[in-house]
Amino acid sequence: MVISFVPVVLLSLCAAQADSVAMTFEDKDPTTGLSVTCDRCSPGTYLRTRCSSTKKSECAPCPPGSFTEVWNHIGRCLRCGVCSHNQVVKTPCTADRDCECQCKPGYYYKQEYEMCVRHSECSSGQGVVTKGTPDQDTVCQICPEGTYADIFSAHNCTAHKSCSNAGLQLVLMGSSWHNSVCANCSELKDGADYLREILPAFFVRHNMNVKHLRRIVHKLPSGDGKRRTSDLNSSELHEQLNTWIVSARPEHIRELPSILTKTGVISAGERLDSKLRRIDIQLKSQCRGNEVEMV
């Protein structure tokens, strides 16, 4: 929505330009007190000197930073508007038109609040149907079968990779929030190494609160001691998680479901454990004779 700053009082003082009556107005001669018909001033000007029975109205251009949009008889031009919070100028103010504002990039005008608010981000498992504009919010939809979106974003859903086309075995079918996981049976790894691929998306998907994230990061098994987490925000905690995920040993990754359960996110722990079990089962089924020892 384009936001203009023309005051209602100006509209009540001045009729539409198309109406011939709006070109004049009735006034009193300052000397005789008699009624006189005076010319209105055109848009972009104001009435500097009122008319009398002997002289016409004297109009003057609006100075910089002011404007009039309609035929008028006001004594000074209106001050140009100023765009408010989270708005930018769409059309600059001129002598005959106020500035027009619109929401800055990443925001849209929400009529209910009468202000610009940030575009919605499509959550994990959703893709963008329509990108947000200054007038409309982003429109999201759940990723259709065979596609996924693994982050909060403004992007489209991505097709799951095909393991068979790459000569690999499918060990975890893709979902709306993570890609398919494939294994090369001739270079087989521990099942936890395959689970590692979806862990960053897993923590985004489950959108855990800061309290739980701090507990989880604090309990992550590693050789460098316990981490200080009390002063970290959600973004920083996710960053620490992702750093740990990259370098964690398989046996440590296998401890994650238990850690999640102990820190209070029981359902997330159960889901992660189920994913890991499915990977282990598929590895044994698809790669017989090449199994690595599971911890």
Automatic annotation (TrEMBL):
Domain TNFR-Cys residue range list: 61-101, 102-140
InterPro entries, per database record: Death_3_fish, TNFR/NGFR_Cys_rich_reg, TNFRSF_decoy_receptor
Renumbered ranges of TNFR-Cys repeats: 61-101, 102-140
Signal peptide coordinates: 1-18
Location (main, coarse): secreted
Protein location: Secreted
GO cellular component: extracellular region
Record carries keyword Secreted: yes
Disulphide-bridged cysteine pairs: 62-77, 80-93, 83-101, 122-140
Pfam family of the protein (one): TNFR_c6
Protein keywords: Apoptosis, Disulfide bond, Glycoprotein, Repeat, Secreted, Signal
Entry's Gene Ontology BP terms: apoptotic process
Domain of life: Eukaryota
Protein name stated in the entry: TNFR-Cys domain-containing protein
